[in-house]
Amino acid sequence: MKHKIIVATGNAGKMREFRMILEGLGLEILSMKDAGVSVDIVENGTTFAENAEIKAMAVWKQTGDIVLADDSGLVVDYLGGEPGIYSARYLGEDTSYEVKNQVIIDRLEGAKEEERTARFVCAIAAVLPDGRVLHTEGTVEGLIAHRPAGNGGFGYDPIFYLPEYGMTSAEISAEEKNGISHRGKALRAMEQLLGNVSGLAVDVTRRHTGR
């Protein structure tokens, strides 16, 4: 039986990225809506990985197929790791990112340049049909900018400064961002893991070796 991959999200942009990176597996990739799944998920984990697994497991219990879920956010060292797993809910779910970004900048007032280190983190969990769980994680290192800049991206991108580019994540092109993104790194690692699982499609091996 050929399996499908169900992604525990309703985010269209995220689905595009999942489909683009995982296409080499040769499996149909569906959103929760595509799969007819509707489930309330309580993200009460203490890490990105735990929350990703909670989401994937909740959908797997409804489908029994391969289910992927991700959890991601911004980790600021000077703030003890905040906003971390609460990135989407930081200062309240209805608070705009314009406000969230300014609050983070204000909280780093007086911080030395070397103390402004931060990273975007993405954890991905995959639950296989037999209940086994796979985990991958991707990160992008940067600094918190002194002021927001750029109109690209979303969320915390305008304050996430990438020293190697000399600009924020909201200023670089979409192509450049996709090449270094935390989600892209975690997805490519998950693609490799899934490609090595017995019983699943192995097209990924041929794609990467040229055979």
Structure, described:
- By secondary structure, this protein is α/β, with parallel strands linked by helices.
- It has a single domain (4-209), classed as Alpha-Beta Complex (Maf protein).
- Helix content is 31%, strand content 22%.
- It is built from 6 helices and 7 strands.
- The chain has a 7-stranded mixed beta sheet.
- A hairpin with a 5-residue loop joins strand 4 (117-127) and strand 5.
- Helix 1 packs across helix 5 (182-195).
- The radius of gyration is 18 Å and the shape is globular.
- The model is unreliable at 201-211 (pLDDT under 50).
Keywords:
211 residues, 7 strands, 6 helices, Maf protein, alpha/beta, disordered C terminus, globular, 7-stranded mixed beta sheet
Helix and strand arrangement:
Blueprint: E1 4-7, H1 12-22, E2 28-31, H2 48-63, E3 66-76, H3 97-107, E4 117-127, E5 133-144, E6 160-162, E7 167-168, H4 174-180, H5 182-195, H6 203-209
Parallel strand pairs: 1-2, 1-3
Antiparallel strand pairs: 3-4, 4-5, 5-6, 6-7
Helix pairs in contact: 1-5
